[in-house]
């Protein structure tokens, strides 16, 4: 069974204080790892897909990286508008649906 | 614009009532999913469907029912047998892994159900 563990569960950052979120996974052959952003009371929005170890993707202040066991979402010089819950999910070859972690709740204080 | 629409945004249910949550997509996706989200518990899968007229139970299907009569639609009924239905419900859709799965799932904006 594919499993995803995200840490830390919650994180408070000062504006401009860079940090990283961790997504550890176990999967029987990785087909893809996905990051989503969810604002309170809204549905998750797609951020990135990573397919193989060593791959990196960037969008504004966010950068996602992937190893064979984990992914990191780096937030560089965050702003209050980066406050959200970030969800990580994996798709393994032995499955046909995503396995989600519980999320990293990030609050950026002005 | 293609997307996935959930309605209503807010729903109130009296004790003993069945209520139906709507989910419609125009992305031509084969698969659709229903999740329940409670604080601190992440997304929990209720039901999913990979093709019209077929669906499977997820991890917490008790007290819920679904139908998939059209590719575009996947309504969820919360029955009176669901003892704790107050939650945020999310519908999602996706293409088929290996052919159309670059973005994983596309989610709707959610329905917040409250028992009164």
Class by helix and strand content of chain A? mainly beta
Largest interface (C-beta under 8 Å): A-B, 21 and 26 residues
Quaternary state reads heterodimer
Shape of chain A: globular
Overall 3D geometry of chain B?
globular
If helices are DSSP runs of H or I spanning 4 or more residues, what is the number of helices of chain A? 0
Rounded to the nearest angstrom, the distance between the terminal CA atoms of chain B is: 36 Å
What's the pLDDT, averaged over the residues of chain B? 93
Poorly predicted regions of chain B are none
How can the largest sheet of chain B be summarized?
A: 7 strands, mixed
- Please count the beta strands of chain A (DSSP E, at least 2 residues each): 11
In percent terms, what proportion of residues of chain B is strand?
over 45%
Q: Strands, helices and their partners?
A:
The complex is a heterodimer of chains A (110) and B (116).
Chain A: E1 3-7, E2 10-14, E3 19-26, E4 30-38, E5 45-50, E6 56-59, E7 62-66, E8 70-75, E9 84-92, E10 99-100, E11 104-109
Chain B: E1 4-7, E2 10-13, E3 19-25, E4 31-38, E5 42-51, E6 54-57, E7 64-66, E8 76-78, E9 87-94, E10 106-107, E11 111-115
Parallel strand pairs in B: 2-11
Antiparallel strand pairs in B: 1-3, 3-8, 4-5, 4-9, 5-6, 7-8, 9-10, 9-11
């Amino acid at each position: 069974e594919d499993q995803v563990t995200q840490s830390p569960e919650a994180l408070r950052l000062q504006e401009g204080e860079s940090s990283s979120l961790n997504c550890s996974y176990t999967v029987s052959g990785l087909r893809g790892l996905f990051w989503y952003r969810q604002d309170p009371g809204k549905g998750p929005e797609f951020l990135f897909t990573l397919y193989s170890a060593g791959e990196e993707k960037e969008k504004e202040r966010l950068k996602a990286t992937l190893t064979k066991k984990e992914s990191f979402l780096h937030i560089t010089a965050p702003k209050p508008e980066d406050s959200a819950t970030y969800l990580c999910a994996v798709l393994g070859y032995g499955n046909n649906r995503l396995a989600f972690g519980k999320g990293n709740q990030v609050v950026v204080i002005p | 614009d293609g997307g996935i629409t959930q309605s209503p945004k807010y729903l109130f249910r009296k004790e003993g009532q069945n209520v139906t949550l709507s989910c419609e997509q125009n992305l031509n996706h084969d698969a659709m999913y229903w999740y329940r989200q409670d604080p601190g518990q992440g997304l929990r899968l209720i039901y999913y469907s990979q093709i019209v007229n077929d669906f499977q139970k997820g991890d917490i299907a008790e007290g819920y029912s679904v139908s998939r009569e059209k590719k575009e639609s996947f309504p969820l009924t919360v029955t009176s047998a669901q003892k704790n239905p107050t939650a945020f419900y999310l519908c999602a859709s996706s293409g088929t892994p290996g052919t159309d799965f670059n973005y994983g799932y596309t989610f709707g904006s959610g329905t917040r159900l409250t028992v009164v």
